[in-house]
């Protein structure tokens, strides 16, 4: 039996994650020019997103590169996670929860080391979908086509039977390049309508050529 599937991003889709200005506040507190934090930490942020560095190493590098005390390092990371985790998009989460048992459900997220534990504790995404594929665990970030191939393999589904939902246009284009259907998240009503249409179409129609 052919399996229909819906795959969602987390930040900007299942979570609302607006810019809180925490980096700028820390630069002001530390009397650093704007952009200094990300310039000094860029390679650490990238390593964290690919899982090539541990949380402990992130803390150590942060303390060294920004000359922070242990207390300030902990406070800095607390601010990072507050913005990263945002607030839950409860309307969409509740809708997706109602799809359990009707299709395969997955998450594909560009993430940071430590995200699974925190998002599981706060939002229980592990109970919402069948599989979660995090970049910090696979070492592959969207829009790399391998990220989409990995999530399909993990869910044991064919890309042409999947609808991928993300708030970043380049990721939508990348998903489509691998054969997936894709929807750019802008708001809940249009996203829910698009998911419903995908599920109503059924595998036989989903196998038809995708229209722009």
From TrEMBL:
UniProt KW keywords: Hydrolase
GO molecular function, one term: hydrolase activity
Matches recorded under InterPro entries: HAD-like_sf, HAD-SF_hydro_IA, HAD_sf, PGP-like_dom2
NCBIfam families: HAD-SF-IA-v1, HAD-SF-IA-v3
Protein name: HAD family hydrolase
Upper lineage: Bacteria, Bacillati, Actinomycetota, Actinomycetes, Kitasatosporales
